[in-house]
């Protein structure tokens, strides 16, 4: 196998591993009542963040990588816990009796926080890849496409589970987000 094919396989595996964050969190966020158009948009935003964060990381270089890698993991874990906890907080009920989205629904600022939270680790990986001279365009395309597809898969699966679980879906979604955030915090 030539070195370019080996590099592509390595980058795809890394992109898949990093995209699993987006899948796991998407699974929890899919518990919100989301329309397909929102799911499509969320996947694209997460994919864009998974392009820009490693690109910024690759450009930042070696001197930041050791210090920022730990910070990124802590920040990502805390963001996921905050998103999970806010799903437990009861919102106001509208006329139909369903709860409104809470502080950080996956729209607007909440969507940006969500996308940032699941892509912070790709910044750290980008730092490392920049040190080793990985091909920038190939790297960011692999990361962006994998994150987009895995986010869509997580959101769609979460949406299906939401319909099956009814009122307990937000509790399950919040639990998934908190568990994943705790895993990030204690994996150091």
Short précis:
The protein is mainly alpha-helical and 188 residues long. The chain is built from six helices and no strands. It holds the Pfam family Mntp.
Keywords:
single chain; 188 residues; mainly alpha; 6 helices
Overview of the molecule:
This protein has 188 residues and is mainly alpha-helical. The chain has one domain. The chain has helices spanning 3-29, 36-60, 62-88, 108-131, 136-165, 169-186. The chain starts with a helix and ends with a helix.
Percentage of residues in helical conformation: over 70%
Q: What separation lies between the terminal Cα atoms?
A: 34 Å
- Tally of helical runs: 6
Judging from the principal axes of the Cα atoms, what is the shape? globular
Number of domains: 1
Low-confidence stretches: 91-103
Oligomer: single chain
Strand % is under 5%
Overall mean pLDDT stands at 76
Secondary-structure element order, as H and E?
HHHHHH
Evaluate the radius of gyration: 17 Å
Helix- and strand-based class? mainly alpha
Largest sheet: none
Number of strands: 0
Organism: Peribacillus muralis
InterPro entries: Mntp/YtaF (IPR003810), Put_MntP (IPR022929)
Subcellular location: Cell membrane
GO molecular function, one term: manganese ion transmembrane transporter activity
